[in-house]
Design a protein that fits this description.
Layout (H helix, E strand, L loop, with lengths): L2 E2 L5 E2 L12 E7 L5 H12 L2 E4 H8 L7 H20 L3 E5 L5 H13 L3 E8 L2 H13 L9 H10 L8 E4 L4 H16 L1
Parallel strand pairs: 3-5, 3-6, 4-5, 6-7
Antiparallel strand pairs: 1-2
């Protein structure tokens, strides 16, 4: 059932027919400034899940991050440990991070498979012009959670391992509500 708040804004209401998806991991993957966190926050709210963000975990654990492999392993390791615990309780966990290396994604795949947890992958993307605009906006934010700039974007983009599993791709340059509606609809369809 769809409910409209205004003619221009569509609200996801009962798209899951009143049910909350449980015991599920949703990986929100993509390059910096592709809208992962915005999509992740909205999906978390709609699905009543728990959101784990690499940027926030990094900020909470490290005063001066160096973005070394050791630090990345720590951040993703903490994320995976918390995910393992929460999903063992039947919770829905939304993971927000670049996950640009296949080896990092495979750790989540393995954990989900070993524990028989449903896993869905959402890849966020958008045109480079949109990324540059978003990064310029970030610069004006006094306390940005993400420190990624355009040089970081280019570096990660060059190292991004293609996702070889079935996944949902969402262009976040589109109207936010329609992007979220699309992802929720595809998640629900995938669960049927």
């Amino acid at each position: 059932m769809w409910a409209f708040l205004t003619p221009d804004s569509l609200m996801i209401w009962n798209i899951l027919e009143g049910e909350t998806i449980r015991g599920l991991i949703i990986m929100i993957i993509g390059l910096p400034a592709t809208g992962k966190s915005t999509i992740a926050k909205n999906i978390t709210s709609e699905l009543k899940g728990t959101l784990l963000r690499t940027d926030l975990i990094r900020k909470q654990l490290l005063k001066k991050p160096r973005y070394s492999k050791k630090e990345k392993d720590l951040i993703y390791g903490v994320m995976l440990s918390v995910t393992n615990y929460l999903t063992s309780l039947g919770e829905t966990v939304i993971l927000d991070g670049t996950f640009y290396k296949r080896s990092t994604r495979e750790k989540v795949y393995r954990m989900a498979n070993e524990n028989q947890i449903n896993l869905r992958i959402v890849e966020c993307c958008c045109p480079v012009e949109v990324i540059k605009r978003r990064m310029n906006r970030r610069k004006r934010n006094k306390y940005p959670l993400s420190q990624a700039d355009y040089e970081t974007y280019k570096k990660i983009s060059a190292q991004f391992d293609a996702i070889r599993r079935e996944h949902i791709i969402v262009d976040t340059s589109n109207f936010l509500r329609s992007s979220i509606t699309e992802v929720i609809y595809k998640l629900r369809k995938d669960m049927d």
